[in-house]
Amino acid sequence: MDIQSIINRIASDVSTASDRGQVADYIPELASIDPNQFGISVALPDGTCFSAGDAQTPFSIQSVSKVFTLALALGRFGDQLWTRVGREPSGLPFNSILQLEQENGIPRNPFINAGAIAITDSILTGHEPKEVLGELLRFVQTSAEDADIHINDTVAHSETEHGDRNLALAHFMASYGNLQNHPDRTCGTYFHQCAIEMSCQQLAMAGRFLTGHPDAPRLISLQRTRRINALMLTCGHYDGSGDFAYRVGLPGKSGVGGGILVIAPNRASIAVWSPGLNEYGNSQLGTYAIEKFAQMTGWSVFG
Ligand code: DON
Which of 130, 165, 196 is the last residue of a domain? Predict the structure, then answer.
């Protein structure tokens, strides 16, 4: 299969798209990103990487970072983690507070904001934010085999200035005893984690550990790899997760920076980026591109 010509065709197809969605504007630093950008990279488990479009341009990975913190937290706490956060799709927007009250401060899953804040809080306990962010960066750099991956402090501060919703989620969890650090400390760390910048090529490389293939970096057990993939498929696109599973048929995790990490188990890790978002806060053209890619390759977890 000629992966390079498939992604070239996709990049050329989306370059003429008129409806590119809306860039996230609730984080002011992200509001000024040029929506006309598009990149895609496909990394095979052994590190062979195919790219098209703006695949070398770094972007804010935002919620895609939740996959890496989940891997770290599972490594540290194992199944105990599931006393603090559930494993069910929420069917609600990523920043919703509704279920938190009905469900006693236990977030539905690790990928909605409340769940990701609880995960970050868990790895923060007993450590300095700097240490935790350093460990996270090293994990990502190791999996990508690339040391040139950084946190954009300006983006982190921009989100901190407008972080009322996430702080509310953290305080709400604290009121139920489901937060071990001060909400400012946990959210500050979480905002920095979200502000990691990577290009499509770096992100595709970093995702290889989730393919479960023996040639990929083995950073977590095979069983955990499968479980993180299951959560990505069911919860990785929030209230758009069912639609993504239907259209693409592969586990994926999106971020409001417009990036999506998609895993084709045993085959490849794919990163796609286009800053304009659809109604669910997931990349509009990114979703379209990955749907086309899945169709053209025939790759699916459903056979
Ligand atoms: O917490 C937030 O709102 C952002 N830092 C991340 C949200 C996000 O990426 C949702 N994804 N589509």
Answer: 196
Q: Evaluate: CB of 282 within 6 angstroms of ligand 1.
A: yes
The parts of the chain modelled with pLDDT lower than 50 are: none
Best mutation site among 63, 154, 192, 260 for ligand 1, i.e. most ligand atoms within 8 A of its Cβ?
63
CA of 113 to the centre of ligand 1 (A): 7
How would you class 83 by CB atoms within 10 Å of its CB: exposed for 0-12, middle for 13-18, buried for 19 or more?
A: exposed
pLDDT in tens, 163-194: 999 999 999 999 999 999 999 999 999 999 99
In a domain, 97, yes or no: yes
Q: Which domain holds residue 101?
A: 64-196
For residue 271 the two structure tokens come to: 């990163």
Q: Is residue 303 part of a domain?
A: no
The torsion angles phi and psi of 296, rounded to 5 degrees, stand at: -75, -30
Indicate if ligand 1 lies below 6 Å from the C-beta of 166.
yes
Distance from C-alpha of 14 to C-alpha of 283, rounded to nearest angstrom = 13
Cα dihedral 233, 57, 139, 150 sign:
negative
238 catalytic residue (yes or no): yes
Q: What is the 3-state secondary structure (H, E, C) of 63-95?
A: HHHHHHHHHHHHHHHHHHHHHCCCCCCCCCCCC
Q: Give the C-alpha separation, 65 to 202, whole Å.
A: 13
Q: Which amino acid, 101?
A: E
The long-range contacts involving 239-248, CB below 8 angstroms and separated by at least 24 positions, are 239/90, 239/91, 239/92, 239/93, 239/280, 240/278, 240/279, 240/280, 240/281, 240/282, 240/287, 241/89, 242/89, 243/280, 244/282, 244/287, 247/287, 247/291, 247/294, 248/287, 248/290, 248/291, 248/294
Which two three-digit tokens encode residue 137? Answer: 């960066």
Annotated active-site residue 63? The verdict is yes
Give the whole-angstrom CA distance, residue 89 versus residue 87. Answer: 7
pLDDT of residue 1: 81
- Per the structure, how many domains does the chain have? 2
